[in-house]
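#lab-general

N.A. 3:47 PM
ok so I finally got the sequence cleaned up, no stray characters, all 527 residues accounted for. can someone with queue access submit it? mine expired

B.Y. 3:52 PM
send it over

N.A. 3:53 PM
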Amino acid sequence: MASGDETNSSSMNNTGIHEQLNVILSELSSLKKEVHNNNVSVSSEVKHLKAEQEIKWKFEGNKQQYCFNSELADIVKQASWAIEHGKFEYCGDQLKELAEKLHVRNKDIRIADSSPAGWDTVRQYKCNPVASDSDDEAKINKAENRALKRKRSSTKGRGARDIVRPSCHTDTAPTSLMVPEAASTAALSPQGHVFIAERTPTSEEIVHERSHQQLPVSDKPQQGSSCQDTDISMKDLFLQIYAEDIEELPDVLAGKVDLLPDLLRNSRARGTDKKYTGAFLRFQKWALCNGLGSRDTLPAKILTVAIYLASLVQTVNSPSPIVSAFYSIKWFHDMYGLISPTESKLVLNVLEASKRLLSKPVKRKEPINVEIINSIYDRLYVEYNIKSQRIICAILIAYAGFLRSSELLKIRVRDIVFNSTYMSVFIESSKTDKYRDGAWVLIAKTGTKLCPVANVQKLILWGEFLDDYFLFCNISATKTGYRRRKINKPMSYSNLRDIFIEVLKPHVDNVSNYCLHSLRSGAASVI
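B.Y. 4:20 PM
back already:
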């Protein structure tokens, strides 16, 4: 029995030893796989770093985004490996690190989007990462001020000759000198999908993009430029011109400099600003295409402007584009407080020469006299016919009040005040009303059939016009006559012009010699 017990005990010991050996061997095999995987990972990482060193990045922002995406991809690989090998605690740590990186990245995007300095503010913000949550807002503000100051100082030292000039090719389509498309920032959503967030380009990226754009060799100005497209370039010009003065300002005032360019644009009417901005942008394109820098256009040299105007003379058929170019250059120099080259006798003589060469003889329209108006009235006047009365009143008011057609069509019933011997008409806006103050026009009663006051009263009475109605509105035909349309809109200029030509045609020899302005000029010729 003793020998049998010993045999059983030894066999059990051998079985335990074999089991322990199997566990050790399995663990060694697992460690061997991990070491192999680590070697493969290190090898791939070395290859990845070599590939990164071989890449030549055009924009620093793209490089940083590529590195950030590579970090996320590495974390996802580590988490995937941990799941395959049952290391769920390590997988959880990797996912927490991934979520933290995305949180920080989203915060950086919000800071860059809300700051005028863009990603420069984020870089300054990350220079000093040690800060409590309560000091975070103050830290962002300080970082933004440092970024703006650094941006201004970099602009200050950059000359026109430092910018790489674009190469011009005749077979290249024209490109706009605008800010390049915003680069994109990619990140992973909680579901694992990739989403794109817009990123504000840095000033260095903007300069680099502009310097590599190709423009066609052409003296003809490009069409289709809009005022809204040049907002950023106008601000950049302002910052370049006043870089030294801005550098001397306190940070509180320097942050408000961006208010000035937009405010200066409102020194002219919106249409004038749009016209002059488009003309000046064409001047900039011409300058860049012909080997000049952005600093050569504002302030511009006298000879440069003279050559530009002379080149326009060779390509246009009227003096209008040349006049627009001349006054756009003058406006931008005056707006920024610079000495304008348009004050030079050389440039002025080029402008006058272009007018003489390109202008065509003006054929003035003939004025309308009282006899023609009287014959029109006798032919059209019908009691309670608001269609005929409408054109009669338009002719009488335009003639007696020296009104333009644009002023005539804006008159509402509430703008007319009747008195015993005259009526007052309020003109809300006019071509000569620079500040849109409005003006009152007085028209006297004449006591004749051509009295403007009596005829306007009849039109208002027959048409049952309320105070808010336009006096010269659209009219529809009915079975019993004519009535005012329900939509309260004035008649169009083309409709008024066509009706006027139609009623005038039987009373003149050549109706093409007359227009709506003939009423105003006819009244002026009588005085």
